[in-house]
Amino acid sequence: MRHCIIVVGGYINDIFAKEFIEKERPELCIAADSGMNFFYRNKLTPDWIIGDFDSASSEALDYFGGQPDISWIRLNPVKDDTDTESAIRKAIALGAEKITLLGATGTRIDHLLGNIELLGIGLQNHIPIQIVDERNRIRMIGAGITLEKEKQFGKFVSLIPYTNVVKGLTLTGFKYPLDHYDFKGFCSLGVSNEIIAESAEIAFEEGILIVIEARD
Amino acid sequence: MRHCIIVVGGYINDIFAKEFIEKERPELCIAADSGMNFFYRNKLTPDWIIGDFDSASSEALDYFGGQPDISWIRLNPVKDDTDTESAIRKAIALGAEKITLLGATGTRIDHLLGNIELLGIGLQNHIPIQIVDERNRIRMIGAGITLEKEKQFGKFVSLIPYTNVVKGLTLTGFKYPLDHYDFKGFCSLGVSNEIIAESAEIAFEEGILIVIEARD
C-alpha cells in the first residue's frame, strides 16, 4: 500500500482537495474526526474513520455508520493525542509508504502548528508526510532534497529551521543561495526564496528543516 | 514609549484589528509594507511606514506619501529580512516595550511561520512580542507564566515546544496537567488544553515554548 490521504477537520477547499484525491488515487483514505464531513459533502467514502467524534456532524456519522466497508476507531475524548496523530499512526500501522494530510491548515494556529509537529512522525518512521492545501505544500526533512522547477508547488520556497540550528545549509539554484551556513531561528532569512535554475538543491550537515512551497 | 502595534500585510479582520487598536491605544503604529493598505482602508494613520513596497497599493502609497507626519523607511527589495523583521527591529530601536503584530497570520503558511520565528527577537531583547488575530494570541516564552482564566484569550491553551526539548514542564490549573515532563516535538500532546482553575501556571526549567491561546 503506497499513498494514504488523511483528511483532517481544519480548513479545506473542497475543489482543490477533490482534484488532489482524484489525481493521486490513494490506496487508503482516512477521515480524522470531522474530516468525515468533507467525504460526506462530496459523496466520497473513506476506508477508515478515526476520532472521538466531538466535532463531526450527526448527518455524516449516521450516513457512514450504516456502511459495511468502512472501518472505525472510536477514541476516548480525554486523551493525549489529537485525532490526526492517531490517524497518522494507524496509517503507518496499515503499511502507508507516503502520507498526505488535507484539511490540516486553517484559522486555529495551534492546530496547524500541532499538525506540523506531526510531520516528524514521518522522519521517525522513514515515511514522507506532507501537509497540502491550495497555497502550501509543507514538509519536514532530515536530509537534503532536490526540487525541480517544473514540478514545484507554487512560486516560492521557504525554509524554517525546526531544530535550533540547521548546520552547514547550502542552497544552490535559488535566487538567494547559501554556502555552508549555520541556519538558526529568530529571523526571516529563509522566507520567500525562489528557484532560478532547472533544479534547486537543499543540502545540510545536521538538523531538521521545514520546507514550504507556497503560492499567493 | 510603551506599546507598538505593527500591521503586516497578511490576513487581517478589519473590525477585530480596529477594535484592538482602539482598546490598546498604542503609542506607536507601524505599517509593514502592504500593512499600509489596512490603515488606508480604515482611515487611520501610521507613525512609520516600512517596506520595499512591492505589495502595497498605489492608492495607499500616494495617499500617505503626501502626509508630513509619517516617517518612511524604503527597503531594498533584494534583502535577507522580511519587511516585518525590519519593522520589529525599528520598533525596538524606537523604544518599544511591548509589540503586537496584526495581519501576521493568513493563508501563506511560510509567512506565518516566519512571523512566529520573529517572536524570538522579543526574547533576545527582553520585550514581549505577540501575534494576535481574532482567533489566536501567539507568544514565545523562555520562562514560566501565569494565565488568569478571566483574562484568557479564547477557550483553549496550546503549547508547542520551540526548542527541541522543553525540560521539566509543569502545568497546574489545566485540564491536562503535567509534572516535570520533558516536552519534545513530533507529537500533539500540547494541543487544546484548557484552564480549569482561576489561574493556571506554566513552569519549566529549560527551553523555549510557544503558547497559543485560541478560540474556534
UniProtKB/TrEMBL annotation, chains A, B:
GO biological process, any: thiamine metabolic process
Protein origin, superkingdom: Bacteria
Keyword terms: ATP-binding, Kinase, Nucleotide-binding, Transferase
Gene3D superfamilies named in the record: Thiamin pyrophosphokinase, catalytic domain
EC identifiers of the protein: 2.7.6.2
A molecular function GO annotation: ATP binding
SUPFAM superfamilies: Thiamin pyrophosphokinase, catalytic domain (SSF63999), Thiamin pyrophosphokinase, substrate-binding domain (SSF63862)
CDD domains, sorted: TPK (cd07995)
Broadest EC class assigned to this enzyme: transferase
Thiamin pyrophosphokinase thiamin-binding domain ranges (all copies): 144-210
Protein name as catalogued: Thiamine diphosphokinase
Species of provenance: Roseburia inulinivorans DSM 16841
